[in-house]
Design a protein that fits this description.
Blueprint: E1 5-8, E2 25-27, E3 35-38, E4 46-47, H1 57-61, E5 68-75, E6 81-89, E7 92-99, H2 108-121, E8 137-143, E9 149-155, E10 161-165
Parallel strand pairs: 1-3
Antiparallel strand pairs: 1-2, 3-4, 5-6, 6-7, 8-9, 9-10
Bound molecules: zinc ion (ZN) (2 copies).
One zinc ion (ZN) binds at residues 129, 131-132, 135, 155, 157-158, 160.
């Protein structure tokens, strides 16, 4: 029927870079019935179509996101592209991690710069590791060996680490 579904992640409603509205997340790895999936829920909360082309309620109520992760995308009002991984466990969408896949062109150093920038603007954003694209980055401000205070981002999964001076 549709080509994609709509997604409503929890706690990711503004662009980490410009703070404009971040909505209209879409993904193609679910049932692709123009359903609206909301984080924390097991089944779609609605089907976003004209009343005339609505499917059967029983079909909607049987629709699920696949176990594991699915990638979702959106663009903020000022044109910053974002992608995120939605994690689904036991049929429930449990968490969402921003990935930096769309920034820019797949070079890890550029993704690290973007990750550190996002985390300095929005310290509570959940950002996926630029190296393994899966682990969640933890941030901490601490001095480096020469005594300069740095903001360290460390992957809980692959242990990759990068740092930028704190201004
Ligand atoms: Zn933005
Ligand atoms: Zn990693």
């Amino acid at each position: 029927m549709g080509m994609f579904d709509w997604y409503e992640p929890a706690g990711v409603d503004e662009c980490p870079l410009c703070r404009s509205l971040l909505g209209g997340w879409q993904g193609k790895e679910g049932p692709c019935g123009l359903y609206v999936f909301r984080q924390g829920h097991r089944i779609p909360i609605e089907q976003r179509v004209d009343p005339g082309s609505r499917g059967l309620d029983s079909v909607m109520l049987a629709s699920r996101l696949p176990e594991g992760t699915c990638e979702i995308y959106c663009e903020c009002e000022r044109g910053h592209d974002w992608s995120a991984l939605a994690t689904v466990r036991d049929g429930v969408w449990t968490d969402t991690r921003l990935t930096l896949r769309t920034y820019p062109h797949g070079h890890a150093p550029a993704r690290w710069r973007m990750a550190l920038e996002v985390l300095s603007i929005a310290p509570r954003a959940i950002v996926a590791c630029p190296e393994c694209a899966d682990g969640e980055l933890a941030v901490e401000d601490a001095p480096d060996p020469s005594g300069i205070t740095m903001r360290w981002a460390r992957c809980a999964r692959c242990r990759a680490v990068d740092a930028t001076p704190v201004e």
